[in-house]
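Example 5.3 — cysteine dioxygenase
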Amino acid sequence: MRIGKNVGERRGSDSKKTRRRQRMVSPVQRLYETCKDVFDNCGPGVVPFAEKIERLKAALDMMAETDVGLRPNMPYFKSTTYDKPPKITYLHLHECDKFSIGIFCLPPSAVIPLHDHPGMTVFSKLLFGEMHIKSYDWVDNLPAEPTPIANPLDKGLEDSTGLRLAKVKMNTEFRAPCKTSILYPADGGNMHCFTARTACAVLDVLGPPYCDPEGRHCQYYYDFPLANLPVPEEQKGDYAWLKEREKPEDLTVVGALYKGPKIVK
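Solution (predicted structure tokens):
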């Protein structure tokens, strides 16, 4: 009986230690450990299993600016010039060949222009503030149309000038606290644009991260209104022509030291 009691006491003590350690682990550390598991067997173009996506989404949904040591009154979120677009600050938390974690800090009216995420699954969590997100997916074909189509562009094909048809996936205002947005390699709004309505911060998880040598280059785009597309007039706002462009000259993203809770690797 005495041995059993001692075993029970030890188990109870171990259980308390485990719960105490779980309480001591920071949200950032939990996020890192969750990402390690979620992206462990993934690579370019490989989407994590649905249950793992939900687990990572749940971890991000619970996070706020205080969990990463940010406050809306920090210098990152103030415009210092008025004759050009505000600069955006990027705080680097972690990057490996499987995933990256970082935070974009945007002053009011700052814009991250329309860009893509080749072969990636991306989680974006608005930590505070208000932001407009517009995103697109490529259109590979259109529903059959009884009227003959004279213009080859109307078939949703890329033309000689580089225009390619895309469909709007999201065109929405977000205000924190809100749920995490997720995009996938081939759908979910792989090309998106962020516009800060107020000062705001976006926590981003990319799996895998950008990598120029492996062909995962961040490509920027112009978007143009439609012409002669064989869809009902009320649906034309759901489509646009996209064309590749160089990185905008007025886009300024600067790196800064992340000073929030540390990640133990």
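Remark. The first strand starts at residue 88 and ends at 95.
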